[in-house]
Design goal:
With 778 residues, the protein is an alpha+beta fold. Among the domains are: 12-88, SH3 type barrels, CATH 2.30.30.100; 396-565, Tetratricopeptide repeat domain (Serine Threonine Protein Phosphatase 5, Tetratricopeptide repeat, Alpha Horseshoe), CATH 1.25.40; 571-774, Jelly Rolls. It starts with a helix and ends with a helix. Mean pLDDT is 82; it is low at 5-29.
């Protein structure tokens, strides 16, 4: 019994000692954040780590400062321990702090937010600081605390998109009247990150509208110009970019420089020559800043392409590729350059690389259409054009280009209605309205609707299409009934101020002066056109000349003739009948009839009995100072094996004959005392170099064509022959002064049983004007 009582006393003593060594807890301790267990000894030392084990007599503890550290394990008697505090994570302390928390208190929200930030409870810190902002949005300090937390959260997640609450908080700060450029920029960044461009534009417009030119205003205007362009508001974008340019700040922003360069490229493609030089300045600024180098070379290459400097454009595109501009847009642009240079294989390879890109789904098709058209693959090109026109993604520019290309490939297609639909859909856009009006005016001009052409072209001018091409078309539309020569002259003068040496403009000015009777002025205009071409080319006056030069040479000759020569014309404007009358002599062969029909001399029938028998109408030429004859004729069925000739001979048969052979080749024959000398333009002889003989073919069509013989002032000059105003040969040894009793006319020849029909529509005789009283008296 006594032993049992002793045991109980010892047990009570041990329990009392153990209870005295337990850790001491208090309310304040519970609000302390402890990452590790804390061991405090009676000698004042403190250890942090993990409690490994404990017993009534001792404690085993592992000291460590990080999770990765193994730590140092030791044991010590419990009597050496003053206090053991268990770990207390921030989450547990946070819950305790919320027990007596008043969410409507700004100070408490701010304090708790700061505490959460200190203990790395980032999410809770953001939440409490956001609540503080809502309670007092005018306190700027809160945003200075909150914004860095937002940035840290976004950096940790790798997500560049702003949170909705973050954007709302920043906008609330702006609404509360806080004047802070940093917050305004953040609001714009946030709205753009979630795709709200309209909201960003509204803020930027408010900033940009300020009268000052501070850093914030300038940066806002630069961003605003880019955003407005991206949203399709080009005119507004140009206005803000222009304001930046006027303030001298545009060159600081590569994005604005690229925008300006793109606009200038579009202006240059519309005919604004000055835009090309300005574009090069913008590109140079980009290259000097080492900014957007690839884009800069792409723009410069596109400019070279517009200027028909294809090799230089390819060199620029290669630089763009080396600089990293290897996207689908670059590939399509590069493909167009190769297509223009004639390398269709490389162009198609580049297009195949861009086919999968939705960004250039329309553009690569347009370039491929261009290639197929050049290769003669018209059916494939038309199919691609149908794809473009059926696409809802096609811009109005692409639709107009596709429509005009389709009409070029298939002239029977009428596109007026489709252009008008584009006009109705996009008429509020000045550029679209101008472009549609220009095309409608052009089509009206070609179809002969002169008054309609004038109306549409005036619309195009008022909408902003004030290019030399538009002024030229307006001038051409002033011809005919209701035209205004004064307006035509104004239009041409305006265009020539921009392009003083443009051949088409000068030719149109020459035509206008010719119509007005200003023959010297017309001749000078045509002389200016001829003078713009190399001397060797213009002295040839034959061969594959540029159309503008060929037209100028022909028109200049008309003006010179009107100045220096007199003209007699028979246009056969008299009643139909079997006789040509008016001093014409008819010589018929079997099967071919000659008669007047519809203001023409008609040769019609089937050659009978006499193969190559001559059927002709001729008239005597008694005029002095004869300088040439010309006939306008039409084969009613184009590809017929019949020889048609313009003749000038004397009664003995000596003369010069300009003919269209059975196969369409133009040539001439000299007849006289010996055997006839026959020269075809496709078989040059010994004198072909001196005569500048050019192979010429009468086309296999039913259009009217002219044959002309021009006689020199003396025997040394010889004669020249022309087809449709283009010289075929010169210095033909034809000595007209030795001939007497001249006759001139038109003849036909065919083999047996060949049927043909020829209309002689006009016959002209030219003579030089008298230069002395004796000549005039004669």
């Amino acid at each position: 019994m006594r032993r049992q009582q002793l045991t109980s006393c010892l047990l009570l003593l041990v329990l009392s000692l153990w209870s005295c060594s337990l850790p001491v807890w208090s309310g304040d301790d519970d609000l302390e954040v402890r990452r590790w267990d804390r061991l405090e000894l009676v000698n004042g030392k403190v250890f942090e780590g993990e409690l490994v084990a404990e017993s009534p007599l001792e404690i085993t503890f592992r000291q460590k400062s990080s999770d990765d550290e193994a730590g140092i394990e030791f044991s010590l008697p419990r009597s050496d321990v003053r206090r053991l505090l268990r770990r207390n994570p921030p989450e547990a302390v946070y819950k305790l702090r919320l027990r007596n928390f008043d969410p409507s208190s700004f100070d408490l929200q701010r304090a708790l937010g700061l505490w959460c930030q200190e203990v790395d409870l980032e999410k809770n810190a953001i939440s409490h600081l956001e609540d503080a902002c809502r309670l007092r949005p005018q306190v700027e300090e809160i945003y200075d605390l909150l914004i860095p937390l937002y940035d840290a959260r976004r950096a940790a997640s790798g997500n560049a998109v702003f949170d909705d609450r973050e954007i709302g908080t920043v906008l609330e700060a702006m609404r509360s009247g806080i004047d802070n450029p940093w917050l305004r920029k953040r609001a714009v960044d946030g709205l753009l990150s979630i795709g709200d461009r309209i909201g960003a534009i509204l803020i930027l417009e408010e900033i940009s509208a300020a009268s000052g030119d501070g850093e914030e205003e300038i940066a806002a205007r630069a961003r605003l110009a880019v955003l407005l362009q991206e949203t399709g508001k080009e005119e507004e974008a140009r206005r803000w970019a222009r304001r930046l340019r006027e303030s001298g700040a545009a060159g600081r922003f590569p994005g604005v420089l690229i925008l300006e360069a793109r606009w200038l490229l579009g202006d240059r493609s519309s005919g604004d020559l000055a835009a090309g030089a300005m574009l090069e300045e913008r590109v140079q600024s980009l290259l000097e800043r080492d900014a957007s180098v690839g884009e800069a070379h792409l723009l410069l290459g596109s400019l070279r392409l517009l200027e028909d400097r294809v090799e230089e454009s390819i060199a620029e595109f290669k630089k763009a590729f080396r600089a990293g501009a290897v996207d689908a847009v670059a590939a399509v642009t590069f493909a167009l350059a190769f297509a223009r240079s004639g390398d269709s294989t490389k162009a198609l390879e580049l297009i195949s690389a861009a086919r999968t890109s939705e960004r250039v789904a329309i553009e690569w098709r347009l370039v491929e259409v261009y290639i197929q058209e050049n290769l003669g693959q018209y059916d494939d090109a038309l199919l691609l054009l149908e794809d473009i026109l059926a696409s809802e993604e096609a811009s109005w520019q692409a639709r107009i280009l596709a429509l005009t290309t389709r009409q070029r490939l298939d002239p029977d297609v009428t596109i007026d209605g489709e252009i008008e639909k584009i006009l109705l859909a996009h008429g509020s856009n000045d550029s679209a309205f101008a472009e549609c009006s220009l095309h409608l005016g052009d089509m009206a001009l070609r179809s002969g609707d002169i008054s309609g052409a004038r109306r549409w072209l005036e619309y195009a001018l008022r909408a902003g299409s004030r290019t030399p091409e538009t002024w030229l078309r307006l001038a051409l539309a002033q011809r005919g009934p209701g035209g205004d020569d004064r307006r035509a002259l104004e239009a041409l003068d305006t265009a020539l101020k921009e392009r003083p040496d443009d051949p088409d403009l000068l030719n149109a000015l020459g035509d206008l002066r010719y119509r007005q009777g200003d023959l010297e002025g017309a001749r000078k205009s045509f002389d200016r056109v001829v003078g713009t071409y190399p001397r060797k080319m213009r002295e040839e006056e034959a061969g594959p000349l540029p159309p503008a030069l060929r037209y100028a040479i022909s028109s200049r000759q008309l003006a010179l003739r009107a100045i220096e020569e007199e003209l007699w014309i028979d246009n056969f404007d008299r009643n139909d009948g079997a006789q040509v009358l008016n001093n014409w002599i008819e010589r018929e062969t079997f099967g071919i009839d000659i008669g007047l029909l519809a203001n023409s001399v008609r040769f019609d029938g089937v050659q009978r009995f006499q193969p190559d028998g001559l059927t002709m109408v001729v008239r005597p030429l008694t005029t002095p100072r004869l300088s040439g004859i010309r006939a306008t004729m039409r084969l009613r069925v184009g590809n017929v094996p019949v020889r048609v000739a313009l003749r000038i001979e004397d009664d003995s048969g000596t003369g010069l004959i300009l003919f269209r052979d059975r196969d369409g080749i133009i040539g001439y024959t000299l007849t006289g005392r010996g055997d006839p000398v026959v020269v075809r333009s496709d078989s040059p002889g010994e004198d072909s170099e001196e005569q500048k003989l050019v192979k010429t073919v009468w086309p296999a069509d039913a259009r009217a064509h002219t044959l002309e013989i021009r006689l020199g002032n003396d025997d040394k000059s010889g004669a020249s022959i022309y087809f449709d105003g283009s010289r075929v040969a010169r210095k033909i040894p034809f000595r007209m002064r030795r001939l007497r009793s001249l006759n001139a006319g038109v003849s036909t020849q065919a083999e047996l049983d060949v049927s043909f029909s020829l209309d002689l529509e006009r016959f002209e005789v030219f003579r030089r004007k008298a230069r002395s009283d004796g000549e005039r008296q004669y």
